[in-house]
Design goal:
Length: 356
């Protein structure tokens, strides 16, 4: 068993966005220093004492960064696998690079989860326009074409409602390797957010009901309705199998649709997740603190819900201008990320309303 990292150690975080920011805040609360590595400055730099500004494929800068920290983690999965894997001999990378490689490619991800008994929507790998035509013939329409890599918050996707839209969809994603997913009837979406420690212990949070607008998470609500609760055990069991099979360390998130015959797997993220932001005020231990605890080899904290639940609302684009009204609400907790420019679809902050 690896000895716990003591407070005062330095945690390296790949990425300077809001997730890195909230990880750095949680790390500081536990007495750790953080070192941000990213090609650009961002919200995380406001709360972290150390920064390396360099590309994610700069081997020399990455090596120097790894030598300056005691453990490396990451806030998102859209970084190349090879340079991250190369850090492992210098400093432990948690979650492991295998989690990154699995989650950042939809073909790998779906095949992996299917192998563990998960059930995604019908899908086909698409490497060419001919593959797309064959996939449409096999799956039918409507369907969604998604780039195999580097897509999030609705980016890199095109909906196909009829076969004659195939060329436009293929062009829309830049003729990139992709998957075609069959459309399934569903009314609700939820996620399983769990933490897995170095010793293999797993703790799971209550599953939030997630609502999206234009492909971007709008709200996460705890407790979820009975339809979600009825599928929670099966989904959480699958998530635990995925975490164990990857030897994952840290937060792992799996998203699901409520299907007629059980939970339908959508996608996974090997990191802290937007649908877990409610845990900062709505759970005994936040997802950010439990991620830091896990990667440092500390005991995991309780995931029990505080009070009667919570609703997390993302503040997207100009929504953040409502900050004064939010602060006037009772039991509303405002988080602004310090981004300098509000754009349509850009997450500027979030507010969590706790039900006492």
């Amino acid at each position: 068993m690896t000895a716990p990292l003591p407070p005062g150690s330095t945690i390296g975080i790949l990425g300077s966005g809001q997730l890195g920011r909230m990880l750095a805040i949680a790390a500081a609360q536990l007495g750790y220093r953080t070192h941000i590595y990213a090609p650009e400055t961002g919200p995380a730099n406001d709360v972290s004492p150390l920064m390396t500004r360099a590309r994610y494929d700069d081997a020399g800068a990455l090596s120097a960064f790894a030598r300056s920290v005691d453990v490396v983690t990451y806030e998102f999965e859209n970084v190349a696998f090879a340079p991250i894997a190369a850090l492992s001999p210098i400093a432990p990378v948690r979650p492991p690079a295998m989690s990154l490689a699995t989650a950042q490619d939809r073909v790998n991800e779906k095949s992996f989860v299917e192998g563990l008994g998960g059930r995604p929507a019908p899908w086909r790998e698409v490497k060419s326009f001919a593959d797309l035509e064959a996939a449409i013939a096999a799956i039918g329409c409507p369907a969604i074409l998604k780039t195999a890599r580097f897509g999030y918050d609705g980016r890199g996707q095109a909906r196909i409602t009829a076969p004659d839209q195939a060329q436009a969809a293929w062009d829309a994603i830049g003729a990139a390797p992709a998957v075609l997913e069959g459309f399934i009837e569903f009314e609700q979406e939820f996620s399983i957010v769990l933490a897995r420690g170095l010793d293999g212990q797993i703790v799971s949070y209550a599953p939030p009901l997630n609502a999206h607008t234009d492909g971007i998470l709008a709200t996460s609500t705890i407790p979820a309705p009975p339809q979600v609760a009825a599928q929670w055990t099966e989904a959480a069991t699958l998530a635990g199998r995925v975490a164990a099979a990857l030897d994952h360390v840290g937060i792992l998130t799996l998203e699901f649709f409520v299907g007629a015959d059980g939970p339908v797997f959508n996608e996974m993220a090997p990191r802290v997740h937007n649908s877990g932001h409610w845990t900062i005020e709505g759970a005994v231990t936040s997802q950010f603190e439990n991620h830091i605890r896990a990667i440092c080899g500390l005991p995991l904290g309780s995931t029990d819900v505080v009070g009667h639940g919570a609703v997390m609302e993302n503040l997207i684009g100009d929504d953040w201008h409502r900050w004064s009204d939010v602060l006037a609400e009772h039991d509303a907790h405002l988080h602004l990320y310090g981004k300098h420019e509000a754009r349509p679809g850009r997450k500027m902050g979030h507010v969590t309303r706790v039900k006492r």
